């Protein structure tokens, strides 16, 4: 039975980056509220600097970790799978991370070059449990390689031997290996050849349909919005300026940025016909 509790719930959430200088201590996300229901995909769209990647980091449990580039909470609440993340203990966050897959920006280029493709995909399993059965892990990896439409022969190859699009598929497989209930994907088609982008997006849609996970997909690519989105959140300068079903948000834009998006999508539609 699917839980009625939202997978993600943000209430008046604000995030900033640590800085001693008041000039650069700006709020990256400013008082946003939204929910992602079980099995729902929310596509977050906005231009560079709108706060969408910062929001993705927080939802993917990457806020207040002490790591470089980790945002800080400065207001409101954020809960993922029923756990309030503000002030969450490291132990609780580590436990929760098993159920949250994260595909950071340019993930395909950040695979470990010293590990084979199979080892890269399996790594999250052995980080959790070093004694995990090797054969079971290999079977899980082979299944996912097949699912992301790569040949099993790449298992023993290294990241530098693959194309960028192939590396991105490997990164998706790695993010899926622990069978997360929530997948956060930050601009999964950025920097990928236009001809390959559609295939990556279709793969994302297909995986989500098969596995019924909730997802937060961040993109600046309007084609991606149309291809993936039923529910969309539009961010502009840290604020949420539109949220809801894609058609509703674009047909009644109250903010100039959303109006611009609607016009751009109309142009894309005209060009494709």
Termini separation comes to 43 Å
**H-E order:** EEEHEEHEHHHEHEHEEHH
Tell me what the CATH architecture of the domain at 1-99 and 182-195 and 212-273 is: 3-Layer(aba) Sandwich
Radius of gyration based on Cα positions: 19 Å
- How many DSSP E strands? 10
Q: What's the total helix number?
A: 9
Q: What's the arrangement of strands in the largest beta sheet?
A: 6-7-8-3-9-10
CATH superfamily of the domain at 1-99 and 182-195 and 212-273: P-loop containing nucleotide triphosphate hydrolases
Judged by helices, strands and strand pairing, the structural class is: alpha/beta
What's the CATH C level of the domain at 1-99 and 182-195 and 212-273?
Alpha Beta
- Assembly type of the chains comes to single chain
Q: How would a crystallographer describe the biggest sheet? A: 6 strands, mixed
User: And the CATH topology of the domain at 1-99 and 182-195 and 212-273?
Assistant: Rossmann fold
Ordered list of secondary-structure elements with their pairings:
Blueprint: E1 8-16, E2 27-36, E3 41-45, H1 52-59, E4 72-80, E5 83-84, H2 90-97, E6 100-103, H3 117-128, H4 134-147, H5 164-176, E7 182-186, H6 194-211, E8 214-219, H7 222-228, E9 231-236, E10 239-245, H8 246-251, H9 256-272
Parallel strand pairs: 3-8, 3-9, 6-7, 7-8
Antiparallel strand pairs: 1-2, 1-4, 4-5, 9-10
Helix pairs in contact: 3-4, 3-5, 4-5, 5-6
